[in-house]
Specification:
This protein is an alpha+beta fold. The protein has helices spanning 7-17, 22-29, 33-40, 48-57, 62-66, 93-99, 214-226; strands spanning 2-3, 107-111, 115-119, 128-135, 153-160, 163-167, 170-174, 179-183, 188-192, 198-205. It has one domain: Jelly Rolls (Sandwich). It has 7 helices and 10 strands. The longest helix is centred in the C-terminal third of the chain and has 13 residues, at 214-226.
């Protein structure tokens, strides 16, 4: 399994290419400049909420963080004149490399609060985030249990462990085989409240029209708080 160890460097490169100072970037994300610096130097990992805010502010896709300058993208070999064409009903090596993601070679991102994302697609997919997610014991989608929101719609199924999913005012406890779907623009938070890692498959669609900036998140949380 390939784990990105240059996540911070990639974020810093995109920030500098966008001409945004570290201090201004921190202001937009709603975190301290020192926190941004620690993320960019690899001394700290972003939470799920911070990562979504980062890629939104920089106009990035999630796949750009999974890919290191395309280093992990599969290379489809050029057809060989000496290689016979695949017979009907068989799959060529090039077909497998472009379609099948083997479990042992997934690209992963380790996030703050004990969360790991593993990409389930071989090729980058701009329209869908298709992930195997792991929440360690006590792991949460945001530090301190803060709500997050972003554009899109989420679909998830828990494979093992126990995952607590709070969407707005509603809280659901999911066990193996349980699934959930919800509008990602509604403030939400995911937590592992069990005594073993919680594993699942998650799919987010429509996220790339994201308006879920740090300011938008704060506004949504203020609205949520005013309804309590």
């Amino acid at each position: 399994m390939n784990i990105r160890d240059d996540l911070g460097r990639e974020i810093r490169a995109h920030r500098e290419q966008s001409g945004i100072s570290l201090r201004e970037f921190a202001r937009r994300l709603g975190i301290s400049p020192s926190a941004v610096s620690q993320i960019e130097t690899g001394k700290a990992r972003p939470s799920v909420s911070t990562l979504y805010a980062i890629i939104t502010e920089l106009g990035m896709s999630l796949d750009e963080l999974f890919n290191s300058s395309g280093a992990d993208a599969p290379k489809t070999p050029a057809p060989s004149k000496s290689r016979p064409a695949a017979r009907s009903g068989t799959v060529s090596l090039s077909d497998e490399k472009s379609r099948v993601q083997r479990a042992g070679s997934r690209v992963s991102i380790d996030l703050e609060s004990g969360v790991r994302w593993e990409r389930l697609t071989v090729q980058p997919d701009h329209d869908v985030d298709f992930l195997h997610v792991v929440y360690d014991v006590g792991g949460s989608s945001s530090q301190g249990g803060l709500f997050i929101r972003h554009s899109g719609r989420e679909y998830g199924i828990v494979l093992s462990g126990t995952l607590e999913v709070t969407v707005g005012f509603d809280t659901f406890l999911l066990g193996p085989g349980d699934s959930v779907c919800f509008d990602s623009t509604v403030p939400h938070v995911l937590r592992n409240v069990g005594d073993e890692p919680a594993r699942g498959v998650w799919c987010v669609i429509g996220r790339h029209d994201d308006e879920g900036t740090a300011e938008g998140i704060e506004a949504a949380l203020r609205e949520l708080g005013s309804r309590k």
